[in-house]
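User: Quick sanity check before I run a bigger batch. Here is a single chain. Can you write out its predicted 3D structure?
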Amino acid sequence: MPVARLFKLLADKRRSRLQKQFQGKPFAVPVVVIGNISVGGSGKTPLVIALVKALAEHGLKAGVVSRGYGGKAEHYPLLVAADADPSQSGDEPLLIARQTVQLNCPVVVDPDRRRGVEYMLAQNSVDLVLTDDGLQHYGLHRDIEIAVFDGPRGLGNCKLLPAGPLREPIQRLSEVDFVVANGAAESAYQPLVDTEISLQARIFRNLSDERQIPVDGWSESTAVHAVAAIGNPERFARTLEFLGLDVSLHPKEDHRPLQQADIRFADNNPVIITAKDAVKLTGPVPNNVWVLEVETVVDGQFVDRLQQQIKLFTGRKS
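Assistant: Done. Predicted structure follows.
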């Protein structure tokens, strides 16, 4: 707790300094930050992908800027193509680029997100910019803030690092424009939540031959290995168990590229990985490796409210 108090003091000073320096210096288009106040996976990237698609249905073209955690490019900013090297782009930006390629959504990676947004706007014509993560990146002006948290998991003991899982106090949620729970939130958190999203499992895709099987048509062995290098691998395992599978979970460090040894088991039972891990997997793939493809379901009223917020910041000069 003493270290947590020191952490809060330093974080507050940093936030105040950076906000005075950068907030109030808007860009030519609205910037929407999608982040969280806790460590661990919360579902930010799936929400970004879902919003790119949902806003496109409203006639709005979004660009995405990301830190690109896990990647190291020779030069930044980096425009991420669908066939980019994940060791340079990072896994999440590459996943976004691949899942939004039909919408021509530009994805830019830069540890300096402000520079990334400037590059995005100089090189592309977009109506708004979504940033994947970056709620605490106060060097970036933002017009709209969306905080995401894992509904079932909640916010732990609600204490700051290192005494708890929070990067910022829970009161920070009262300052953002929208609080999104990924999955049903416990009753204690309901007053904070503006909307809930859900990840719906759709198909199993074989990585070797690209066969696709609807989740309700799975005819392989029900005993499976789940390998996941994501922030919340237990959630992935629960999803598979909900589909009726007997899961042996093999969690890996978040963002770590999977190795061949990670997906090979003596029993030859099916191995199921996430789409985020699939973009990092290189080399020959055994024919028993499958990707669970999911779709994020977003409430239409939330999208409408977000669109109305975006309109408030549209058409200005930077």
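The chain has two domains: 2-197+298-312, 199-296.

User: Great, the batch can go ahead then.
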